[in-house]
Design brief:
Blueprint lengths: L15 H9 L4 H10 L6 H14 L15 H9 L7 H13 L1 H19 L5 H10 L4
Length: 141
């Protein structure tokens, strides 16, 4: 057990000066993580995020989001691919629509899934060959 007078060392300690400098320059957490990882940091992104949340709160600043990119929960994405968007709660519909605006690959995938769903629903096998050609043209990651 550590005594009250002795603080526990953090894996972030050697990088705190760099972290704080970059944070004050309003760099994203992801970019700060990349910089300190190049300097040898072996800890987690979550650990850095927690440190910055506490640090920013101490400064009276609101903590920034952990990622500049839009993120969609995996389960919500899978449900969306299987169901029409109108079946979701309004708040989830808004999340999905916002994410779709920023992700061209997902737009292409959704279009292909919806087209296939229509072909399957109306049993129009004459459209299937065109659908297959269209899907093969798109380069999915």
């Amino acid at each position: 057990m550590l005594s009250a007078s002795r603080e526990r060392r953090s894996i972030l300690d050697p990088y705190k000066e760099t972290i704080i400098t970059l944070n004050h320059e309003r760099k994203t957490i992801a970019s700060i993580f990349r910089v300190i990882a190049k300097e040898g940091y072996k800890g987690s992104y979550r650990n850095l995020n927690a440190f910055l949340a506490e640090h920013n709160e101490g400064l009276g600043r609101r903590h920034r989001k952990t990622s500049p990119e839009k993120i969609l929960r995996r389960g919500l994405l899978i449900s969306f691919l299987h169901n029409d968007i109108s079946r979701f709660k309004v708040e989830d519909q808004e999340k999905i629509e916002e994410y779709l605006k920023t992700n061209k690959n997902l737009q292409n995938l959704c279009s292909a899934v919806n087209d296939f769903r229509d072909i399957f629903r109306i049993k129009d096998d004459s459209r299937l060959e065109n659908w297959l050609d269209k899907v093969q043209e798109v380069q999915y990651p």
